[in-house]
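Open question from group meeting: does this chain pack into something compact, or does most of it stay loose? Before anyone orders reagents, we agreed to write out a predicted structure and look at it together. Recording both the input and the output here so the notebook holds the full record.
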Amino acid sequence: MKLEFYYKPECPYCQKVIRVIEKYKLEDKIDFKNIKEDEKHHQRLVEDGGQDMVPCLFIDDQPMYESSDIVQFLKKEFVQ
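Structure tokens returned:
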């Protein structure tokens, strides 16, 4: 499964997801894409995701928005 997390460091909803990723030590399973740091990441978020909104987790190139949905997905997939 290919996971890409699009975020802005100052976004509190992004930070919520990052805290869960760190808590369960999932950093090595997710490719982080800071849209403030690289315009290519922002462009892909808008073009492929269809929205200029973070947080966004691309799961095998399919976007998932909303921090609560992302957290729920990560816990279901990786936390037993």
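Observations to bring back to the group:
The CA atoms of residues 53 and 65 lie 8 Å apart.
The chain has three helices and four strands.
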